[in-house]
């Protein structure tokens, strides 16, 4: 038996590790991201574990490329059992530090983090309904609790949570599961790759990375949640606590969030 999974953002970090962990005989993997050579390096690691792999250079910020990704998957493997919407970009900046002429990148970030997942999911939906498949949305704890210095990123991740929560209910009669994953701080390059107040790669992390979760553990939890069809995977004890504490003591949660950012990103 074969199992076909599309993983967006599979050229590094969490997506690449999810691909490696899903690899084995019978695994048909479709790896998508903008950098084809990086995808091909991940593909080699997956093939060594027995997977059949298709790499598709995809910018999820372009709707036609999301459709082309799904079309290429169906041409090669004939079905889609799982879609893991993982591609994402981080951003750190205080709103007051973003110049009006640079605000456009807030829209660009939404295009990658939200619209990329919406467009890919829409294109894959008929195939996922046919297979009674699984959808995963990789959100963030910043999609549960608003984090200072992360207005743009939190907005994209809250939007993802709302979209996929509504879709989960919509798809209930069809047998397609929707799992939203909320990682905390995970040891990848996301904060280095992520954008600063000018919408350019930050080059360094704006978070306190002490105690970050390993990428292996994060990928394992995402796959476990997907396979069980869990509604949500909230990854850390702090995240679980923050979610409920926010209802009864929101001020305390704001203080916890302020503590998590480095001094230069604290509101002045
Ligand atoms: N690491 C964390 O601490 C953390 C915490 C919470 C949530 N998350 C979420 O987890 C997901 C993966 O993050 P990560 O830590 O693995 O980040 P990462 O190491 O920076 O990897 C991001 C991936 O997304 C791809 N990507 C970026 N823009 C894209 C675009 N326009 N089209 C297609 N692919 C694109 C990148 O590939 P290319 O550059 O080749 O396109 C790369 O494969 C993201 O959605 C992130 O928000 C991460």
Beta-strand fraction estimate: 5-15%
* DSSP, total strands: 7
Determine and state the CATH class: Alpha Beta
Main sheet overview:
7 strands, parallel
CATH topology, by name, is Rossmann fold
| Mean of all residue-level pLDDT scores | 95
| Strand arrangement in the largest pleated sheet | 3-2-1-4-5-6-7
For the record, the CATH architecture stands as: 3-Layer(aba) Sandwich
- Terminal CA distance reads 58 Å
Low-confidence stretches: none
- Give the overall shape: globular
From N to C, what is the helix and strand string? EHEHEHEHEHEHHEHH
CATH H-level superfamily: NAD(P)-binding Rossmann-like Domain
Q: How many domains would you count in the coordinates? A: 1
Number of helices: 9
Taking Cα atoms only, what radius of gyration do you get, to the nearest Å?
18 Å
Structural classification: alpha/beta
List descriptors.
14% strand, alpha/beta, 268 residues, 7-stranded parallel sheet, Rossmann fold, binds NADP nicotinamide-adenine-dinucleotide phosphate, globular, single chain
């Amino acid at each position: 038996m074969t199992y076909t999974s599309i993983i967006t953002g599979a050229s590094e970090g969490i997506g690449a590790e999810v691909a490696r962990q899903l690899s084995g005989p019978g695994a048909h993997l479709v790896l998508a991201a903008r950098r084809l050579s990086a995808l091909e390096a991940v593909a080699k690691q997956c093939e060594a574990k027995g997977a059949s792999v298709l790499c598709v250079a995809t910018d999820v910020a372009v709707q036609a490329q999301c459709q082309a990704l799904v079309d290429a998957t169906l041409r090669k493997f004939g079905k889609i059992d799982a879609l893991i919407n993982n591609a994402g970009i981080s951003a750190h900046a205080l709103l007051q530090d973003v110049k009006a002429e640079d605000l456009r990148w807030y829209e660009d970030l939404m295009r990658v983090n939200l619209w990329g997942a919406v467009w890919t999911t829409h294109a894959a939906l008929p195939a996922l309904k046919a297979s009674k498949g699984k959808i995963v949305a990789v959100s963030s704890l910043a999609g549960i609790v608003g984090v200072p210095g992360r207005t743009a990123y939190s907005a994209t991740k809250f939007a993802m949570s709302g979209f996929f929560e509504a879709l989960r209910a919509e798809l209930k009669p069809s047998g397609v599961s929707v799992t939203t994953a909320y990682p905390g701080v995970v040891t990848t390059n996301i904060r280095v790759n992520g954008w600063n107040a000018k919408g350019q790669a930050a080059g360094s992390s704006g978070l306190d990375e002490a105690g970050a979760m390993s990428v292996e553990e994060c990928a394992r939890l995402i796959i476990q949640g997907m396979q069980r069809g869990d509604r949500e995977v909230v990854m850390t004890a702090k995240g679980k606590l923050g979610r409920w504490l926010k209802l009864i003591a929101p001020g305390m949660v704001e203080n916890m969030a302020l503590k998590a950012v480095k001094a230069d990103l604290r509101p002045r």
